[in-house]
Amino acid sequence: MRAIWKGAISFGLVNIPVGLYSATRPGNQVKFNLLRKSDLSPIKYKRVAEEDGKEVAWEDIVKGYEYEKGDYVVLEEADFKRVQITSNQTVDIKEFVDLAEIDPMFFDQPYFLAPEKGGAKAYVILREALKRSRKVGIAKVVIKTREHLAAVKPLGDALVLELMHFADELADPEELKLPPAKEVGQKELTMAETLIDNMSGPWNPSEYKDEYREALMEVIDEKTRAGGKKAPGRKTAPAASTKVVDLVSVLKQSLEQAQSHKSKKPAKKHRRAA
Questions:
Q1: Average pLDDT, the chain
Q2: CB 143 within 8 Å of CB 116
Q3: Could you give the C-alpha distances from 189 to 57, 72, 148, 194, 199, in angstroms and in order?
Q4: Fewer CB within 10 Å, N- or C-terminus of the chain?
Q5: 136 is in which domain, residue-wise?
Q6: Closest residue by Cα to residue 161 from 6, 3, 2, 9
């Protein structure tokens, strides 16, 4: 794994040399090209001006900020340089807070931090101290010329740097029309809690696959083998109903189904103590 950059974690007078590594892989999305239907010629896009529909060369394009409807102020390269943030490759921890206090909505993109030469001992000390205190370090870090808010968190033997959203980047749920708790009765609530309990289990992410992508790739493979001809029809799952239903009846059916499914699972074997 190649480091994105090598720098340091900084807090107080402590500096821990580390490397920053990507903790995620690109999604396996199925990519398509847009083609002309008659001869499958690829479609290209041109940059045209809204005023007259004429194509515009790159050298004639500038960046403008719309401060009022239809009114723009143009920013030149010198303007951007005035506010350019230079990366010092430092994870600058400003404070430590309880992890439980942070809404998961704030977390965005994880990276691994690994110790560089001479930083192993301090790295372990910080990692274990965070585990014991159940705190995370809130830091500022510059990645790709942009300053990010981030959290330094322990994960097993690793320290993770997770980029975070700034508070003003999150939408306020108060803007939605949400029903109050008094809308439901105790009977429905108890049944829902029982259903949740019956459907609960340990988190195992490997059990979940992108079924849509797998099915789509099967269709693509079939059409490729058939020389581009129409693939045979496939059964599709019925769409979810949007009709108002008897909630108690549906919960009862769901609960019976969950209990039946749970009873069919093979019992786990327990090793006897020697």
A1: 85
A2: no
A3: 62, 54, 41, 9, 15
A4: C
A5: 5-25+84-168
A6: 9
User: Kind and range of the H or E element at 254?
Assistant: helix 247-264
Which CATH number fits the domain that encloses residue 159? Answer: 2.40.290.10
Whether residue 271 has pLDDT greater than 50: no
In a domain, 256, yes or no: no
Structure tokens at 109: 């993109």
Q: Is the dihedral of CA 87, 93, 97, 98 positive or negative?
A: positive
Q: Which two tokens stand for residue 192?
A: 């829902």
pLDDT at 105 over 70: yes
Cα–Cα distance measured from residue 139 to residue 111, given in angstroms and rounded to the nearest whole number: 13
Instruction: Using DSSP bridges, classify how beta strands 90-98 and 5-11 pair: parallel, antiparallel or unpaired.
Output: parallel
Interval 112-129: pLDDT, tens: 999 999 999 999 999 999
pTM of the model: 0.71
Whether residue 133 has pLDDT greater than 70: yes
